[in-house]
Amino acid sequence: MKRFALILGGLTLCAGLFASETVPATDTLRTSVVTGTRVSALRDQIPAPISVVGRETLETSDENVLMPALMEQVPGLFVTSRGVTGYSVSNGAAGAISLRGFGAGNGRVAILIDGHPQFESIYGHPVADEYLAANAARVEVSRGAASVLYGSNALGGAINIITRQPVHDGNELGVKLMGGSYGTYRGILNDSYKKGRFTMSASLSADRTAGHRVNSAFNSLGGMLNAGYQISDVWKAKARVSLSDAWSQNPGPVSAPILDGTANTIRGMAGLALENRSERLSGAFDLFCNWGNHIINDGHTADKPAQEYLFHGTDYTAGLTAYQTASLWDGNALTAGLDLLYYGGNAYRNPVKEIYADHKCLNEEAVYLLDKQTFGPITLSAGLRLDRHSAYGLEWIPQFGATWTPETGTTVKLSASKGFRMPNMRELYMYAVANEALLPEKAWSYDFTVGQHFLDGRLNVEATAFYTKGSNIIEVNVVDGIRQNRNVGAFANTGAEFAADWKVCQTLSFNANYSYLHMEKIYTGAPIHKAWLGGRWTPGRWSVDLGAMGISGLYLTTGENARTAQYVDLKARVGCRVTKGLELFVRGANLLNQTYETMDGFPEPGIVVLGGLSLKI
To answer: In the prediction, which pLDDT does 104 show?
Structure first.
């Protein structure tokens, strides 16, 4: 890590020499959020630690998918990768999302779009290629158990993607095109329109690469359409639909390359919502449906024959979210909510002899109450959820929290929250390791956070210490020679997180974060140390972004001969505003040309350089 420290020091020194007169980044630790309460609230009043990644940061990343930008900006969040772009699904797939050591790949971190759960319902994992940056206005990440609000799968936290809505009257069109290393090309189109009571936003993203290894190509196409109508001063109707189609090759580990390994995933989402907002009352009634179709060829090595049958899987998730928040008196906010969720699907290889899930269906219903009361600089909050699952019956989920925000700019937070995860269909019903006697996983998260605003809010710092204690974690275990999914017992994760942002002047800003994780039980894809330092300088027509992410203690394998990885990913972006709406830019990643892996046997590409243009009309 000495090399990493020298690089970050050099970046800070270089960026400190840059100063001029343009508007700097606006994403700060004082951003308003909705994740913790369903209604807008300042981060300083929410006891749970929350990271917010705004639109400006997402645009500057030039990525089609969200996860690379989130990994840079959120302490404790790590996402595995295996190539220039694209994550895929099934064997050899990347995109395993870890938050504080909890993996979203097994459903322990909830992924949501506008508060709606997003996962492949048969296997219980998210599909990282589906979450497109062009669709997002901002992303709010709850670090720690969030099951009171989001139910099962929020055992270790929640990532809520808030979709874009037009703000200004008229039409705004944006186009971004780029290309570069390894035959990589990207295109992003955004359009938003607002007139009177009507709003509309649309996006389209295309991404492709030939890959840095043989048989590692990827291409995808995705889009979203949002529409809204302000019925009255109180009521607003919304509708949204999205569709994504991704195709990828799996090259296999370098020690055993794979032939013909491909995955084609089609994912869709639709929703209708009716929202209300008045002086004392606000809420929503929201119907949603997600679906997917996956066709996968697991491939074969050179010494084995091709697959006789391909894997086919179809899945769906449908539900209702309804809630109302009432301000009963000054300083009070009481939220009552109802969640209904139905999910299922089928999966097979040989449609006659090898059926893994035959139109399985599960359902979950829940009611919850959240109450927040402010007494001067002190805010107390509590919540309780009663969740009923078709396979497991009732589960009570409480949470408690307190914040203190004196006029000095100091914020002190305490929170305790319970998280849980119901076993997914794969664990219950599929393959030889299936076990219908599994119990839900459970965990308690305890967080202590201290934040400070300096220089009239231009410098903001926040530090969190956390402790998570869990039980009933599901793993494949061997008992009497039989491999089976089992609840293997307790675990504990502890750690610390730090984040800071500093607007030095109108043209110079920095942001940094660091996380330390101690896992009682070691898991892959969750680094012990993770650090990021980024700087942005905007002199006149020019913009310069520099950033470096350092990773240490990333377990690639576990056990007696465990392998770990450590590396520094140095990134840079230079842009020039040619006219008012036209920018030319070039960006590079892994500029130190380091050799490293985040998945065992899947080396990352070397230096990657992309150049392009961004046009806004």
So the answer is: 54
